[in-house]
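Researcher: Let's do a round of design. I'm pasting the structure tokens now; please hold your answer until I've finished.
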């Protein structure tokens, strides 16, 4: 039997003759349990928030997207489109053309993006699920707007007076050459057929309509687009499909994965997650100073026992190991109980949604085994350091007092 481990377990179970030492040990254990539970709950909450936040952007973002390497648009020939259809692992693709535009309706106005999409767009992205009311339109001059734009401009659906979409004309010569009576912008009248709702920023961003209308509005030909959205098969190799798309379209485009399309959002969420972890780890570090104090108190309380063990042949190294193992057991056991308590709270939130953001929306959390290992690893490492510091106080001078 491992002698230091046996003695450490006995010390862990036994109570001190001094009530103050028992209280200090209990508080130390409680702090470890609460700290580890809090760290696990916060990491699970941030994981849920991350997934929840990305679900909004993923509605509009495809698996892969081709964007112009330079400028705002690029051309895609019929031959290139036929080659794209033959790429293994590529389920479908959709072309789009978007530009900032000035929207106006009855003396109310705002700036948004006019996005022309082809007939495949709704099947390639998840935009169909965002339709709040209305439909995607059947006639030529119909469009779908975000609920933010809808509320701001007060545009009724299927109204005789359409929403006006204005974009500046491409610069060709001076104003005098174009004529003083000519308008410096092109306009497109749209009847609102539907309204989508996702989240506040996206709800004020887009007006969807048919691709040929936007190409005509921006004076582009039918081959010019600002992006191509790709939907992959479930088991497709993303990198293999990306390389195949690059081979077909060449250097005129950049092919971005879903993560690369939202690189700044991913970076922000990861930074927030790391900052939260470091803050709570700092709290745990401060809390685990209690472990050092508790072990030192235990060393002083068991001083006579240590003298007896030393007299019976136990070395200083073994005595240090006894208190080191005791400290490690306290922190590990406390961390495990804390993680179990945190797990029960997270699972209950997933099952019952007892904590609400709104009356109909439960606070998003995510149970992750990785977070469990991160918390336990943090507790064990900090416990190791604390126990090592405290156990190093054992010396021949202390034993001989």
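Researcher: That's everything. Go ahead.
Model: Designed sequence:
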């Amino acid at each position: 039997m491992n002698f230091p481990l046996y003695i450490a377990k006995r010390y862990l179970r036994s109570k001190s003759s001094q009530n103050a030492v028992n209280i200090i040990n209990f508080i130390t254990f409680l702090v470890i349990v609460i700290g580890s539970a809090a760290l696990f709950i916060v990491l699970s909450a941030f994981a849920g928030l991350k997934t929840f936040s990305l679900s909004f952007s993923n509605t509009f973002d495809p698996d892969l997207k081709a964007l112009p390497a330079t400028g705002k648009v690029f051309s895609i020939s019929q031959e290139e489109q036929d080659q794209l259809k033959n790429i293994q692992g590529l389920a479908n693709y959709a072309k789009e053309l978007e530009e900032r535009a000035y929207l106006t309706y009855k003396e109310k106005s705002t700036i948004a993006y006019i996005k022309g999409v082809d007939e495949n767009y709704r099947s390639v992205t998840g935009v169909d699920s965002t339709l709040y009311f209305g439909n995607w339109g059947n006639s030529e001059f119909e469009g779908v707007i975000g609920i933010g734009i809808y509320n701001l401009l007060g545009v009724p659906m299927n109204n005789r007076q359409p929403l006006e979409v204005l974009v500046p004309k491409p610069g060709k010569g001076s104003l005098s050459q174009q004529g003083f009576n000519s308008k410096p912008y092109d306009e497109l009248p749209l009847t609102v057929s539907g309204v989508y709702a996702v989240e506040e920023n996206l709800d004020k961003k887009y007006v969807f309509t048919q691709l040929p209308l936007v190409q005509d509005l921006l004076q582009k030909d039918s081959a010019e687009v600002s992006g191509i959205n790709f939907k992959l098969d479930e088991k497709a190799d993303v990198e293999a499909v990306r390389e195949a798309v690059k081979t077909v379209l060449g250097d005129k485009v950049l092919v971005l994965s879903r993560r690369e399309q939202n690189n700044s959002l991913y970076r922000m969420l990861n930074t927030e997650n790391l900052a939260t972890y470091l803050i709570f780890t700092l709290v745990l570090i401060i809390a685990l100073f209690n472990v050092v104090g508790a072990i030192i108190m235990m060393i002083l309380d068991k001083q006579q026992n240590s003298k007896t063990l030393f007299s019976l042949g136990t070395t200083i190294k073994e005595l240090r190991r006894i208190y080191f193992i005791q400290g490690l057991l306290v922190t590990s056991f406390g961390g495990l109980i804390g993680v179990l308590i945190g797990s029960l709270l997270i699972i209950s939130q997933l099952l019952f949604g007892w904590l609400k953001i709104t009356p109909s929306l439960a606070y998003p959390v995510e149970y992750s085994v990785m977070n469990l290992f991160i918390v336990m690893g943090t507790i064990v490492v900090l416990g190791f350091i604390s126990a090592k510091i405290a156990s190093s106080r054992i010396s021949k001078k202390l034993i001989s007092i």
